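sry for the spam today, last one i promise. struct tokens for design, 53 residues
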């Protein structure tokens, strides 16, 4: 937390990080490998589409 100059910049970072983390952080132990890879590929494709727009 020392790298952030203000509480507002920390809150902005956390808000963006949380939305990105929700796309990629999946409970690996709760699904099969094939299903995990499909979900991961879909999340990555969506992220790439958002970044290119």
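last one done:
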């Amino acid at each position: 937390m020392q790298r952030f100059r203000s509480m507002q910049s920390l809150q902005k970072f956390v808000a963006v990080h949380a939305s990105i983390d929700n796309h990629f952080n999946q409970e690996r132990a709760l699904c099969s490998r094939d299903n995990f890879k499909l979900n991961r590929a879909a999340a990555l494709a969506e992220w790439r589409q958002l970044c290119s727009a």
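The mean pLDDT is 78. ok im logging off now
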